[in-house]
Structures are given as C-alpha cells and as structure tokens.
Amino acid sequence: MSMITLTPTGIEGIDDILHGGFPTGSAIIVEGAPGTGKTTLGVQFLHHGATRLGEAGIYVTFEEFPKQIYREMRGFGWDLNKLEDDGLLRVVSVRPDVL
Q1: CA gap 5, 22 in Å, rounded
Q2: Is the dihedral of CA 71, 73, 74, 78 positive or negative?
Q3: What average pLDDT is seen over the chain?
Q4: Are 27 and 42 in contact (CB under 8 A)?
Q5: In three state form, how does the secondary structure of 6-25 look?
Q6: What pTM did the predictor assign?
C-alpha cells in the first residue's frame, strides 16, 4: 500500500481539515456560488507555493479577468504581477465553451 504525498495549502485551518493538504500533483477544481472565496482560496494556495516553496502555478478562471484578480489580491498584500514576472504564477482567463 503506497502513501499519498500531500502538499500543504499554506491556509490556516484548511490543512487540518484536509489531513495535511492536497494530494501532490493533483489538479484541484473549486466550485461554488459567487462570493464564497473560491478565487481567494486558489490564489492563496498558489501564492504560498510560489513564495514559500518556489513552485510555479497556474490559475485558470472562466469569469474574471487576470488584471481584476491581480488588483483584488493586492488587498491581501500579494503582488501577483511580480510572481508572474518571476515565472512563478500565471493567471489565464478562458471561456468555458473553449474547454
């Protein structure tokens, strides 16, 4: 029996609920009503990976534009533009029908 390796989210309380984090190497899709914190959760996870672990990440959005996300996340003190310039983050906006 092999053990699943977990990647901590860096989000207080979430790792406890997830028993350590997300399965390493997995794709995570977050779904929910508007205003429930999906974007913040996803970007905080990617920000933690980029700034604390040096891991590159990609955020795919179907409804928001990258500039809008970058502006909103500055409110948390997260400079996503710098992470993008450093090659550690990419925010991509895609129409759902494209997929």
Answers
A1: 8
A2: negative
A3: 91
A4: no
A5: EECCCCCCHHHHCCCCEECC
A6: 0.86
